[in-house]
Amino acid sequence: MKIIISPTKKMKIEEYISPLSRPLFLEKTKEILHYLNSLSDEEKAKVWGVKGKLLKENLERLEEIDLSAFGSPALFSYDGIQFTYMSPSSFTDDMISYAEENLRIISGFYGLLRPMDGIVPYRLEMESKININGKGDLYSFWGDDIARELEKEESLVVNLASEEYSKAVVPHLRKDVDVISPVFLEEVKGSFVTKGVYAKMARGEMVRFLAENKILDKEGMKEFSVRGYRYNDALSTSMRMAFVRKE
User: Fold this and answer.
1) What is the rounded CA–CA span in Å between residue 37 and residue 235?
2) What does the pLDDT read at residue 65?
3) What is the pTM of this model?
4) CA max distance for the chain
5) From CA 182, how far away is CA 231, in angstroms rounded?
6) CB of 79 within 8 A of CB of 12?
7) Measured distance CA(146)–CA(94) in Å, rounded
8) For the chain, which residues make up each domain, given as ranges?
9) What number of CA atoms fall less than 13 Å from residue 148's CA on the CB side?
């Protein structure tokens, strides 16, 4: 089983835990870095979708990127809502081992990351428009590379990534790979809705639950019951696993 999640824009450097490996697609990351460095500041701002103070910060960050540096482990380098509720800093050794075997982070800059791959802070969303070797965006740049690596000897992919990132993977997977996408719904006056912030929280907590309990199949996933969510068979399908809580 492989679990895929999205990265975050906000990043940090983990000083006390050393990475164990280098990213799998580092040569392609070097191509992206070379391309970004070839752009004017105005063009970089357009790729990143930032301006003002945020542009200045990212220009400085880009100048400091050294892909020969070992960096800090990917699992501990992202700093958004999902990672806050996942709380990898409190993972036991067994949970880290589970994550290393089963969890993968999809990245516009690095492609596919294992939890203990060493990375450096960057900004580059998967939907960013680029022009590398005639590829007009990162989806075409990465093509099926991420999916081919992800599906090696795998028959189940748990998709906890946002649509922006899952689009870089799911359409390219072999037809015999079973993809299941957990969704987290709020029951409000008889209707079922997804609320973005709550869904991000639940995705992080789902990863933590899977690692704590060493879950490796869909049946085990149904036991997730954090923060009032319960598996709902009636709202689930072969490709969607629905978890509902009442507001």
Assistant:
1) 47
2) 94
3) 0.95
4) 54
5) 10
6) yes
7) 26
8) 2-246
9) 6
> Is the pLDDT assigned to residue 188 strictly greater than 90?
no
Alpha carbon 215 to chain centroid distance?
19
**Which residue from 70, 75, 57, 169 is spatially nearest to 122, judged by alpha carbons?**
57
Structure tokens at 163: 């649509």
Amino acid at 15: E
Please identify which residue in the block is written with the tokens 């892909």.
Answer: 67
DSSP per position, the chain:
-EEEE---S-B---SSS---B--TTHHHHHHHHHHHHHS-HHHHHHHHT--HHHHHHHHHHHHH--TTS--EEGGGTB-SHHHHHH-GGG--HHHHHHHHHHEEEEETTTEEE-TTBEE------TT-EEEETTEEEHHHHHTTHHHHHHTTT-SEEEE-S-HHHHTTTGGGS-TTSEEEEEEEEEEETTEEE--HHHHHHHHHHHHHHHHHHT--SHHHHTT--GGG-EE-STT--SSEEEEEEE-
Residue whose entry in the numeric block shows the structure tokens 């969607």:
240
Query: Quick count: other Cβ atoms within 10 Å of Cβ 42?
Result: 9
What is the gyration radius of the CA atoms in the chain, in angstroms?
A: 18
Decide if 122 contacts 109 (C-beta within 8 A). yes
- The confidence band for 126, taking pLDDT boundaries of 50, 70 and 90, is very high
- Separation of alpha carbons 233 and 143, rounded Å: 34
For 206, the token pair is: 């789902």
Exposed, middle or buried, 13 (CB in 10 Å: 0-12/13-18/19+)? exposed
Residue 210's nearest CA partner among 226, 224, 229 is 224
